[in-house]
Design brief:
By secondary structure, the protein is an alpha+beta fold. The chain has three domains: 7-56, Uridine Diphospho-n-acetylenolpyruvylglucosamine Reductase, domain 2; 66-176, Uridine Diphospho-n-acetylenolpyruvylglucosamine Reductase, domain 3; 182-294, 2-Layer Sandwich (Enolase-like, domain 1), CATH 3.30.390. It is 32% helix and 25% strand. The chain has twelve helices and 14 strands. The protein has helices at 14-26, 40-45, 81-86, 88-93, 95-101, 107-112, 115-121, 128-134, 152-155, 230-236, 253-258, 275-294, and strands at 7-9, 31-34, 53-56, 66-68, 72-76, 138-143, 146-151, 156-158, 161-162, 169-176, 182-189, 199-208, 211-220, 227-228. The strands form four sheets. The protein has a five-stranded antiparallel beta sheet with strand order 4-5-10-6-7. A hairpin with a 2-residue loop joins strand 12 (199-208) and strand 13 (211-220). Residues 237-275 are annotated as: Disordered. InterPro entries: CO_DH_flav_C (IPR005107), CO_DH_flav_C_dom_sf (IPR036683), Diverse_Substr_Oxidored (IPR051312), FAD-bd_PCMH (IPR016166), FAD-bd_PCMH-like_sf (IPR036318), FAD-bd_PCMH_sub1 (IPR016167), FAD-bd_PCMH_sub2 (IPR016169), Mopterin_DH_FAD-bd (IPR002346).
């Protein structure tokens, strides 16, 4: 299909973009922000979105790039997935982000799609929102009135809805460094290499001696927003990753804890999976992710 007609605006700076968005909101106009366009353009072609105007940020020099800022890594909103994936800082300091980014769509999409665009699109089937939630990332938002910070737990409001207000754009995301002792894994079940996750699990596990000292687990596509598996996180604390007991009587306590991963979730039903199947996947994939992260 051909998109509905819209005005095209390409601001020369982030400040101009914020001003244009604020003016559009004051006038009651529906305006969409375009970065890489890998999520927005399909919606336009299907006429699931028909804004009065597009504000194209794709050629702005900022905010893009990856910066090591001591206790966290700052990823500019316009940084492409490919740039994130190739960043040595990301691979060394926040490896969970690299692991998840490697599963996003295909190389063509990763070269055009942006880190910030994926976050703001707020698709619960997207891979990166779950990573942001698991790592307790902080979103830095800018408007003509200044900047504000939004914790990941408050950024994803509902299906395809973020906490960005009128006249606001995402400047970037602060990704905390969790330090030594942590292991990471992103486990994803999808139909094809390019497809959205039917279910995904972002896991970060800290070992204390022979036991699990702390676990952070976030689920992809198990509700209208990414969700933390709090029951499993609590159940894993203090457990040994190795099964207890001998022979046929050995008990895998980690598997038991991961059996609670779907607690409190509301998985959708669609052409690809029913809720019960997604719940099963959440339990199985959480176990795999925790095992890999704690190994």
């Amino acid at each position: 299909m051909i998109p509905a007609a819209f005005d095209y605006i390409r601001p020369a700076s982030l400040e101009e973009a914020c001003r244009v968005l604020a003016e559009a909101d004051a006038a009651g106009d529906d305006v969409k922000v375009l970065a890489g366009g890998q999520s927005l353009l399909p919606l336009l072609r299907l006429r699931l979105a028909y804004p009065a105007a597009l504000v194209d940020l794709g050629r702005l020099p900022e905010p893009r790039g990856v910066e090591d800022r001591g206790d966290h890594v700052f990823v500019g909103a316009l940084t492409t997935h490919d740039e994130v994936l190739r960043s040595g800082v990301v691979r060394e300091q926040v490896p969970l982000l690299a692991l998840a980014t490697a599963t996003v769509a295909d190389p063509a999409v990763r070269h055009r799609g942006t880190f910030g665009g994926s976050m703001v699109h707020a698709d619960p089937a997207g891979d990166l929102p779950a990573v942001a939630l698991a790592l307790d990332c902080v979103f830095v938002v800018r408007s003509s009135e200044g900047e504000r910070e939004v914790p990941a737990a408050e950024f994803f409001v509902d299906y395809l809805e973020s906490a960005l207000g009128p006249g606001e754009v995402l400047l970037g995301v602060r990704v905390p460094k969790l330090g030594p002792g942590w292991g990471f894994h992103y486990e994803k079940f999808h139909r094809t290499a390019q497809a959205w996750a039917i279910v995904g699990v972002a896991a970060a596990v800290r070992r204390e001696g022979g036991t699990i000292g702390e676990a952070r687990i976030a689920l992809t596509n198990m509700g209208p927003t990414p969700v933390r598996a709090r029951a499993t996180e609590a159940a894993l604390r203090g457990l040994s990753p190795a099964p207890t007991g001998d022979g046929d009587g050995a008990r895998d306590q980690v598997r038991d804890a991961c059996g609670q991963a779907d607690s409190g979730t509301s998985p959708p039903a669609d052409l690809h999976a029913k809720p019960d199947y997604r719940r099963h996947l959440a339990r199985v994939l959480t176990y795999r992710a925790v095992r890999a992260a704690s190994g």
